[in-house]
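SEQUENCE-TO-STRUCTURE ENTRY
===========================
Question of interest: how does this chain fold, as expressed in backbone structure tokens?
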Amino acid sequence: MGKTYPTDIGLRLFWLPTINAAIDVSKRDSSQALVELEPTAPDELGFQGPLQTTGNLYPAYVRGQAHLLAHDSVAAVAEF
């Protein structure tokens, strides 16, 4: 998808990192999942500027799952 739509900001900065992080969680690699999710944090509650959309909290859910996998329940609760 990234190659097909290289200029899609939402895809590049939000969806692809979230999908990759979910894959990392399924592989039990919590640290890589958290790294993958870093670019999503500014836009989780909605994109700003000309591409405004409503927020989608799926990255926060995946981040919470990664924290649970890393046995960090306090951080997981904050995300959930």
Q: What stands out?
A: The first helix runs from residue 9 to 26. Residues 9-39+56-79 form one domain. The radius of gyration is 13 Å.
